[in-house]
Amino acid sequence: xxxxxxxxxxxxxxxxxxxxxxxxxxxxxxxxxxxxxxxxxxxxxxxxxxxxxxxxxxxxxxxxxxxxxxxxxxxxxxxxxxxxxxxxxxxxxxxxxxxxxxxxxxxxxxxxxxxxxxxxxxxxxxxxxxxxxxxxxxxxxxxxxxxxxxxxxxxxxxxxxxxxxxxxxxxxxxxxxxxxxxxxxxxxxxxxxxxxxxxxxxxxxxxxxxxxxxxxxxxxxxxxxxxxxxxxxxxxxxxxxxxxxxxxxxxxxxxxxxxxxxxxxxxxxxxxxxxxxxxxxxxxxxxxxxxxxxxxxxxxxxxxxxxxxxxxxxxxxxxxxxxxxxxxxxxxxxxxxxxxxxxx
Length: 344
Prior knowledge:
Layout: H1 3-10, E1 20-26, E2 29-37, E3 45-52, E4 57-65, E5 74-78, E6 84-85, E7 102-109, E8 117-119, E9 128-130, E10 132-133, E11 136-137, E12 142-143, E13 152-155, E14 166-167, E15 172-174, E16 180-183, E17 194-207, E18 210-219, H2 232-237, H3 241-251, E19 262-263, H4 272-290, H5 315-323, E20 341-342
Parallel strand pairs: 12-20, 15-18, 16-18
Antiparallel strand pairs: 1-2, 2-3, 3-4, 4-5, 5-6, 7-13, 7-17, 8-9, 10-11, 13-16, 14-15, 17-18, 17-19
């Protein structure tokens, strides 16, 4: 498909600048991305993600609002018809029912960046926003020798760590978020990407008394993906990377005056089989949440696609969420302290 053929799908409004189209074909998987700037929105960007498999065809875009690196910044997700969807509830966990070791991942934080972006579980349609600390946008400190996040960091859609359920192996309850994912491939994926990843294992971080699973996975299109099939393969083909990951999670909050984080299993990464069980359990907990079998408390469960969900709403109501936020503006200029080294 040529770039001009994609433009009608990007917006009903006139596009005045160039469109970039990249297509990568790998076996049964084809991935395209499109970025455009619309005439009547200052630097508005729609980032399109197409994921094709033998069974499922999905197409997502992002719509940015507000000013990046400020508290009003939001990243909304839309489907192929430009209708707003929830990245938490409407994007399927599994791109294919035939292989549950491959999942869709929503990228919240590109590798090497510091801005602590996350799916907002407490806002309608769950846009990505920047975490706030002491009434300011939060940036993760650079703890030597690391700079920002050392993987593409994000979440598995349609998963939930229930804060009322104690995990037997950790003795702690869930953190009330979707499952976190560390994608360890070589590409730096833009914020809002929806990519397919192969599950390799998991770490069990204990964060302020809560179980906070960190699923380790790799982009299925990465050159190492065929060689990495379980947790031990990471040390074999990426020596030092797993150790660096454990160290990063242990110390990343220490510059803020907090103690070293701890792990269940003495920091040992559990294998693929164990990780798949974690994902399956958190998928069940999400199903209970979205089906209103448990109380949602402050979690926003509005969705447009989940059959039988009492929280399902019409597209018109979902689309109104974007219009309630200011148009995209110039990003906030960051001070030099964002790049400061910290030593612990």
